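Hi R.,

Here's the chain you asked about this morning:
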Amino acid sequence: MEKAMQQTHGVGYAEYCRKLDQRLAVEKEREESYKQGKDVIKDVEHLVHR
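And the predicted structure, written out as tokens:
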């Protein structure tokens, strides 16, 4: 998990746990990524059901 967190967000899990500002930044990135994924799925479903 440590390596994936470091590669994906540029911060290790220990630092993520220790620093609130890092945690908030990571969670904001995750939320934006989730929203983008939902938009992609919605677009694909729209194209499939034409």
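The radius of gyration is 15 Å.

Let me know if you need anything else.
M.
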